[in-house]
Protein 1
Amino acid sequence: MNAKTFSGSESVQAAEMRRKAEERLRASEASPAEAMSVTDARALVHELQVHQIELEMQNEELQRARLEAEEASEKYYDLFDFAPVAYFLWDHEGRILEVNLAGAALLGLDRSAASQKRFGQFVAAEFRNEFTDFLKRVSATTLMQTCKVKVQRDGFMVWVLIEGIAAGGSPGPQKLCRAAVIDVTQQKRADELAETNRALQSEIAARQKAEHALQESQLRLTIFAEATFEGIVESEEGRIVDCNEQLARMLGYSVAELRGMEIVRLIAPEDRDWVMASIRQGRESTTEHTSLRKDGARIVVEAHGRPVSPGSVRRLTAVRDISDRKRAEEALLQAKAAAEQANRAKDHFLAVLSHELRTPLTPVVMGVSVLQDRSDLAPDVLETLEMIGRSIATEARLIDDLLDVSRIARGKIELHKQRVALCSVIRQAAEVCKPDMEARRLHFAVDMGPAAPYWVEADASRLQQVFWNLLKNAIKFTPHEGCVGIRCRPDCGHVLVEVNDSGIGIEQEALTRVFNAFEQEERSITRQFGGLGLGLAISKALLEMHGGTIEAQSEGRNKGATFRIRLPLVSPVAQQAAQPPAVAPPAAVRPLRVLLVEDHPVTAKMMQAVLSANGHTVRWAGDIATALELAGRDDFDLLVSDLGLPDGSGYDLMRQLRQRGLALPGVALSGYGQEEDIQRSREAGFAAHVTKPASREAVLAAVAAVTAGEIGTSLA
């Protein structure tokens, strides 16, 4: 118990005794009858004497406690002052309130000079925020806080560890901080030295590992260089330092002979400048050039080289003899050029063949049309004329098939897609084939299904060609009074069309070949039914260009066949909204003065007859010279010209007429009916292109279209 505790106890007990005595005295004065007895007075006196003795004893104890406290305080201050560790008492701002001798020495000051200074002013600038945060943490908790900062002493910076706690043991914003400040400079230097040593040891280990890996890599490189089929050469500033046996054998030297040799000696004269310039650039590069062997032979090599390190003049190059490959590439290029030339010759041949085959058919087609208009012919004659017309149409289709196969193979088919109703396309194809079905007395039925008309994005004429081919195929291979049918059904966003017949069928092994060009099941089929075997190949290619598919099914010989076509559908609403407006029939054509240029006399005669029968005045010329003479002498409203003429072409004629100021609208007649032919006619100035064999209806329709100003018409 300390002195303050004794003093307090004495005061409390004396006050209590005095209070009790005063109460008894007042009581006796107020009531004599109740005055204390002698016994009570003696007891009170005894009690006072006991308390008096206790007070004296407590005073003696208090004196001893005071002496002990003073002695302990002197010992504390001796320990505080002479402690080897710096001790401080700071306020909440870091102002020094107390400091021992070690603390003052740490700051290089005496105690009186250090008092009331802010400790933060001795802290290195980069650590002051950290010291401020430390003081805040001390004020906010009863736990010990630490921080490590640098402080200035005698012009030098030393590392110190600060351990502090709130004075009094309870936190608060104005709380004092007792702190021990320990100089850890030597420890910090030892830690840094240990860390440096560890880093050095790690770097030494990494270098040793890298050197070991480099040795292994060099060993592997040596093994690979000797084992590879390529030549490996190491060079420096254009001179060979080392190489492998493969390079030596490739060039006909020994390794010893190549070491030290200038690279330029191994390069053909015509390649030396640019190859050496590539090497001198010092970058990774690949070259193909001609090298010289020791025996003077020339070989073509591929050299891929790069510097051994960035900026190094030493270079490592892999060299491969590609002479055989180059010879093969040259042979391939020659073969390709020959094939392309043969393909161009074939295309030219087919075009000329088409022209020569079509031209004689034109007067026949027109003659049949003229005769069919006569009302005095017997029924059997009309039937014969109809048969002639069908035969001519079949021959024209065979010619078209030959050209289509060529165009498909070269990717020259152009589709003009629009939204069309598939049912309408199928009905038109069936209408074209109707005479053939009637001639063979076939039973024909069409089931359009529940979702007609099946809108698709397609080139209507090409899609009609597909179904025309399939129907003609079915008709050709179905015996008289057999059955042919078409069935349509929706199928998961597509339309499924089946063209079936009860004909001779297809053997299983032939089902995969029927879509190949010029392919028919057997030669006997070709002999019996004719045809080129192109229709199905063309149909398959056209359907694939529309995003569709086709497959053949048959249970075998004499069990009929079914062809299944699948095409993607489009939205019916969008389709209907996008339908083109109905085209009004052409108005009647006024009588025209026509210049007809045709070198085939029979065709010219029929053309003249057809045009004259429709009220037109026709002057005929068989070549360009005659046509120019007539055009210079007479006035004409229209030019109808064949493109193949004895002294030039219809294009030449149109250009010469334009040069003379005669801007006649023109209709081109030609057996050349491919897309590029039609485009060329338009570019030359012809307003319409009619492909032979030209029917009377096609010629008259072209004349009407040109007269009405419908430029760019193409008619078959």
Protein 2
Amino acid sequence: MAEDQFKRKLTAILSADVVGYSRLMGEDEMATVSTMKSHRNLVAEKILTFKGRVIDSPGDNILAEFGSIVDAVTCAVEIQNALKEKNKDLPEKRKMAFRIGVNLGDVIEDEDRIYGDGVNIAARIESMADPGGVSISGTAFDSVRNKLKFGFEFLGEHQVKNIAHAVRVYRVLTDPADSGKLSGEAGAHRSKMPKAMVAVAVVIFLFGATYFYLAHTPSKESATIKQTAPQETSKPSIAVLPFTNMSDDPQQEYFSDGMTDDLITDLSKVSGLMVISRNSTFTYRGKAVQIKNVAQELGVKYVLEGSVRKVGDQIRINAQLIDAEKDHHVWAERYDGQLADVFKLQDQITQKIVSALSVNLSAQEKGDRKEYETKNIQAYDAFLKGWNYFLRQTPEDVAKAVTHLKQAIELDPEYSRAYAALALVYWKATDAGWREQLKVSPVAARLLATNYLEKAMKHPNSTAYIIAAEVSHRIFLFEEALSYAQKAVALAPNDHWGLYELGLMLIWNGKPQEGLVYLRKALELDPHNPGRVWQTMTIAEFCLGNYEKAVALGERAREFNPTTTSIGGVLSLPYAKLGQLQKAQEAFALYKKGWLSDIPPTIPLVMMFYNFSDPKMSEAVVDSMVKAGLPPTPSDYYQIQMLERLSEDEIKKLLLDSTISGIGLYSGQQWWWEIDTNGGFKTKGGGFGNNEGSLWIEDGLLCSNIPQMTKGLKFKGAVFKNKQGLKEKHNEYLWTSTLLLMPFSVEMRTSQDSN
């Protein structure tokens, strides 16, 4: 009967909606409705021009279909061009941008309506488009790539909610200079890096894609977590809502956002408070909210709100602290001053809050919070602009962020906070898809990150300590990684990222029960972004043998962020232990999608991401993943307990005036380094080719620079004796540099004195 009632057909679907519609309505309903009506009429006219028809237009959304996919994509671009022109006549705050997604797919037709996966995919792809941009599905791309004079950027395969298979997504590039260009796809770019560096790039990508999701990535969705009462804690709990920009210039919004960020950061350093993270409070930005509802959703008693007005070098800050339970103002004050006084004004607000809530400060907390902040107000202003762009998390905005952050360190070469921000940008660049806009390779991104981090560590903030923890973990220095994470939390007890990092490092160090304590604290402070915490808690519960709890947490994480492939690897572990092998294999298949097709997961590669200081935990991971579908051979991996770190003197004695050789983990080719008595060396064979470089030691770490490959930037790491190593396998020693793992053996001594 269904066959008779409904008709199936292949059609081109266009889905569009307004960016920031709720904010616009909250600010001015009448103006928004008027603009929406005008824009919608324009869109409808364009759709008719290209022989399409509007199916539905509820709220701020428009759904249309076309008989031709070429017409649909061309129409989408024409719509955006026309809207761009129309927005030029509107005030900055009233501009109305659309996202558009286009798909070619099968639908069910019921009278004048269409339904099915084809429509769902178009809607999901639309949500991935840039404001003012157009994204299309793989099926649409395959049909139009040689028929339209646009360029295209491959955005990867995405697991779309309620769609069984991954969907290819492309960004349409409309600049005439991009005509015919295809970027992002395998084969679109030919690497000019040496083979060894290509292999390094691959493993950096894989490591980043798995590890950095665990450590950083909030979901693109925000969870709505309703609380009926504040979190059960003896500490006063507070949320700082985004301060309103009251300046005449809407471009000054970066400054009001920066003020809010700094107040959250300052309050987070007070151990006697519980402070909700920026990630969660900024979900209310631009919305008309009821303070009591916000407090209930975030689980706090107090809410701070305010505004900032910046005119020239004069600033005015209005702030009010509200007791949400009693629905009354604890205090409200106005602070006036010059831009140069901004740090003092922030301190006054922080101190007023601490005093009003009767919080006792430690001796360290009573100190000057700006001890390592810049005294150059122009550098601070440049930093705020850069940080504001970074937090938008789009490739184009992150590129702008780098420009401003570099300006900040040019204005103040000792500005540690700016160095830490640059380190974070480049550390995250590969897995976040920012490399093309930043014009860096995976190798260069990693080198720049660690070099900026070194400068940030002269006067580290919590961000610097967190990245230092990740770098140390990457080079198998688990105890140092844990120490850095502890320092991050000591410096900022309410920083959800620091708490999360400490929980993660405790798990890798074989202390999952302790790790869970800090993960739960992180979840309290960032309740709107629980996905990454649930995923990491899944690992902790697995290590504790609580497999059913692990499955429940993992499934919640997958439901919250279904596009993340790394959750598949995590979920496969407890499912395998519970004997639910079909579900374990399905989860592993999802995990495998996150790997490059020519570098499939193997035990040695997987255990770079799932290595624990406790060998039993590592063995449990290997056993479970093999049951889930990981090939059982090769079975060798570097077990932390079998690595004995060498001292500075031992490294010198081992390497200077010698020839070392190894087998590339990814290329499988043998290489040789001939090292002289001063640390200079020549490379031969393998992926290194014939190059020259130098070695030296800093703080117990072996450093190297190969100018032709690393462009003058150094990379460094620890050197270990591998107790399981064999000379014939060229793996008696292991150098765990920030770029790659280099197993090697000493082939010969150059001078007789060394024998």
Protein 3
Amino acid sequence: MEKNFKLVAHIKIIMGPIEYYYPPDIERLFYQESCKNTPIFVRFFMLYASFNSRISRDSGKIRDSDMIRWVKKRSSEYRDRFNHLIENDREFRDYVRKLSHIRVRNIREEKRKQLALNAGRQHKPWGKLYHIMENERDFDTLIDIIYQVRCNLFHGGKNINLRLERHLIDLCYNILNSLYEPFIGEL
């Protein structure tokens, strides 16, 4: 734990007040850590940290939600990679097919709803309560689901001891790894 804290503290010093992404060698380190035989949620954290840094640098965005919107609307490389994998990689297609049948909760929106109801107010949704893919080619919702799983993990909305939750994280890890892996060589 102390070693991880020192790494994070070191990264914050390197980043300084202007840059919002990690240097390429740290992105590569996070990616390498994501490939080790550690619990799936640790591998997903490391992979997402590397991916997040790259899309921050490429998009010029700071907020995670803006970066995700950029991946879906402005960046063709991830959509092109997705289409290539759907057409040519049976294992990837299988991961996406399995994920397309899972309804992923938006923990933040659930909390907002509960707070409003507890205060006797009507809930006015800011976002969806659930994400579910329309079909196996629904790239935008796939990216939303991966981001939602990240949010739920980072903000305490996942129980990593439940088999279904670990399965969901595993699917998202394998899908994101397949989408992101070719870009690691560019670091």
Protein 4
Amino acid sequence: MPVGDRKGDRMAMRMVRIPVVAVLLLLAGAVPQVRAQAPPAPPPPGRERIERRVEMIKIYKLTEALQLDEEQATRFFPRYRAYETEQRAAREQLNRSFRELEAAVKGGREDGELIRLMQQTRQAERRMLTRRDEFFEGISDLLSPRQKAALMVFERRFPQVVKQAIDKIRRGGGPSPRPGRGDPWR
């Protein structure tokens, strides 16, 4: 067997193993977090399964988009998971602040109260941006500038792609596109 074929086989095996490792890391990290938190209200039937599947697809597509090797994936995903958890909490705080501000505007509250709520909302926005900057600086030891740029693009595009896929399913268009035919990641 020529050397080139063995190298190609090894590369193919590595590409298969990376998503599996990434998914296992994701699932392993999720179990302790679930145990440490108070039980949330039960999700609608099937929603939890869908969220897990979207999360698995995200890890797979992210691994692919960043072209992570096994060592990078092993080190990157725990940091990324922690960052996403922090950002989710910060986004919830921002949404609460915004709803409070919106209610104050509609309710005709005093200017002083509006100023306080605007400051609170802007501070929540700044915290999210600051944490994002810290995360991107903190992964410089793991990812090249090209990989970090690909991560920024991925984070912007992935929610849009998921929303489009959900909208398509709701309209009766079936599941996501087949690879090579309208796949936004190709």
